Amino acid sequence: MHSKLLFFCLLIPSTLSSPPNIIIMLMDDMGWGDVGVNGNWAKETPNIDKMAAEGMLFMDFYTANPLCSPSRAALMTGRLPIRNGFYSTNAHARNAYTPQTLVNGIHEYEELLPKLLKQADYKSKIIGKWHLGHRRQFLPCNRGFDEFFGSGNCHFGPFDDEKTPNIPVYKNDKMVGRYYTNFTIFKGTGESNISQIFLAEGLSFIETQSVSKNPFFLYWTPDATHDPNYASPMFHGKSIRGRYGDAVMEMDYCVGKILEKLKELKIEQNTFVFFTSDNGAATYRRRDGGDNGPFLCGKETTYEGGMREPGIAWWPGSIPAGTITHQLGNIMDLFTTSLTLAGVKPPQDRIIDGIDLSPVLLDQRAPIIDRPIWYYRGNEMMAVRVGAYKAHYWMWTEFGNDPLKFTFCRGQYIQNVTVHDQINNTEQPILFNVNRDPGEKYIVSPKSREYKTAMAIIDPIVKAHKEALEPGVPSLNYCDVAVQNWAPPGCEELNYCLPVPESNPKLCVWDH
Ligand SMILES: *[C@@H]1O[C@H](CO)[C@@H](O)[C@H](O)[C@H]1NC(C)=O
Ligand SMILES: *[C@@H]1O[C@H](CO)[C@@H](O)[C@H](O)[C@H]1NC(C)=O
Ligand SMILES: *[C@@H]1O[C@H](CO)[C@@H](O)[C@H](O)[C@H]1NC(C)=O
Ligand SMILES: *[C@@H]1O[C@H](CO)[C@@H](O)[C@H](O)[C@H]1NC(C)=O
Question: Catalytic residue at 68?
């Protein structure tokens, strides 16, 4: 332990004197199998593939929840949604998120990454989708970010501005217009220039910061790969996969431009970049969604397709080029790793689930760090992965009885695994070896010695986790039409405030 620590310090002396800039590139609903380097046949991602060739590719990287908002809350806090409050108790095992009727947002008590990075003088900006609460007090600039360009919600719409307001787009703490009415998205054709606007915002932030003596943190989280997909004229109609692929191509272009900018400014050796996605591809979109590679099911589920994500780390000169790791990683680790690289101590007064990946990132020969991966769906721990083994304590695919409407497991059926009803396997968890069987197709027989050996390791880890767990106050329980984006900060200047209807708070309905 002691010698390992010493070795680590010797490896990154420069980091300690001048912490690196940090860029987290978070894609929306992009699947593990959407990037060329993970085997996608459409080959839309030459720049992302090059990023992997120049950096480290994580084969076993996970999100903390199979839906956008809780996964983003986990990234910003380093904590499981069950702890940070981004879950619901309205119904069992539901994935809740942040629609514009949501009353609450990320708790005041939670310490967010940009705020903590302030301790090391980082200047921070978020570009794209925030999703941790759209009301004034929850917006990024009130929760630790210096700058914001994007939106509190997803780019759903167009709405009529009467029953439902269109979603505002913010510059810092004021809205500068709304999606569809001011920031054009042609839903019929899938054309929009918004990804290019996000890119320009990112490049100009990097340029401005590069001349400053302070390090920067850029959280770049464009949402063109989320339904309804869009792309600008340069990419529109260019992919063999259609609109979704067009959006992936544009994301890839943006990744290339950002890395190119770092090189042009000669700050690439002092910038840690990580590329990943918030959850698995939306398989319920059938032919229109993304690709989860060899993995079972997709977004909304706790099968591998819902939670295993592309993961690429890039930091020329510090992270060895062309390397591949089987370290189990999680989006929450980006919180802890970023703080470590910045020389900031993670909060000590609460449980942090993210681990520091820097030993693995900076030294290819470093041993794999043992850690569990938790698969939660709302208030229920559905599964856990320990080493090669994944044990499902609960299973559930979709809701409703129309198999054509919501197929979270698009075209995949595994007997006793892709189950329509919530099944409690706690008595005898369903076990897979996801190294040999990544598609979760072949159940390890409960009678086998392999099962008994694996469960003897997993059971105590689960028991300890449950005993120590103090669920946070749920933030995603209440909805109200009055809290929608009728009159966001800045609407007066634009003369674009809408009349606020009477408040009518209700429990949100979460089917999925
Ligand atoms: C934004 O769109 C609304 C609705 O179409 C319009 O009234 C307003 O003038 C637009 N604002 C700007 C700044 O373009
Ligand atoms: C996108 O920008 C191009 C070039 O400026 C312009 O011709 C086009 O109309 C824009 N499209 C949308 C949907 O705003
Ligand atoms: C698996 O499914 C079959 C067919 O529905 C059923 O007979 C069997 O009991 C199931 N096995 C388990 C372990 O649930
Ligand atoms: C699930 O099964 C376990 C073990 O049989 C039981 O203790 C637990 O109460 C069940 N949970 C629910 C919500 O039914």
Answer: yes
Total structural domains in the chain?
Answer: 2
pLDDT digits (tens, 9 = 90+) for 66-102: 999 999 999 999 999 999 999 999 999 999 999 999 9
Same domain, 65 and 161: yes
Residue 504 in contact with ligand 4 by CB distance below 6 A: no
Q: Which of 67, 72, 136 is nearest to 104 (CA)?
A: 136
Range of the domain at 412: 375-468
Q: What CATH number does residue 396 fall under? A: 3.30.1120.10
| Protein residue closest via CA to atom 5 of ligand 2 | 193
Cα 477 to chain center, whole Å? 21
Q: Which ligand sits closest to the CA of 426?
A: 4
* Catalytic residue (choose from 2, 9, 68, 497): 68
- 3 state SS of 140: helix
- Name the pTM for this structure: 0.96
Query: Which atom of ligand 4 is the closest one to the Cα of 92?
Result: 13
The answer to whether residues 447 and 400 belong to one domain is yes
The CA 411 to ligand 3 mean position distance, Å, reads 20
**Average per-residue pLDDT in the chain?**
95
From residue 353, alpha-carbon distances to 70, 120, 189, 237, 451 in Å are 14, 22, 42, 42, 27
Whether residue 238 is found in the same domain as residue 380: no
The verdict on residue 485 lying in a domain is no
The model's pLDDT over 318-362, given as tens digits with 9 standing for 90+, comes to 999 999 999 999 999 999 999 999 999 999 999 999 999 999 999
